[in-house]
Write a structure and sequence with these properties.
85% helix, elongated, single chain, mainly alpha, 3 helices
Length: 85
């Protein structure tokens, strides 16, 4: 157990941040799954900008790496273009 006030505070902060990051990452994975499995072109087109924005925010907050965000955006862009064509 922590003996210093600062380390006790750090433990509290880490718990909160871990939960927040886990929630954000899970939400991102669900949104990506929804795009991948969707067949409706209009739904995918409306979801695409929202998911891209979500990925950028997560990369900015260091929840995911910026290159991972770029790779995921590229993959879902391919999916959107394939459905549109």
């Amino acid at each position: 157990m922590a003996n210093h006030k600062s380390s006790e505070k750090r433990i509290r902060q880490t718990k909160i941040r871990t939960l927040r990051n886990r929630y954000a990452a899970k939400t991102m994975r669900n949104a990506l799954k929804k795009i991948r499995l969707s067949v409706d072109v209009n739904e995918v087109r409306t979801l695409f900008p929202k998911v891209c924005s979500m990925l950028d925010k997560l990369a900015k907050r260091n929840v995911i790496h910026k290159n991972k965000a770029g790779n995921l955006k590229s993959k879902i862009a391919k999916r959107v273009n394939a459905l549109s064509a």
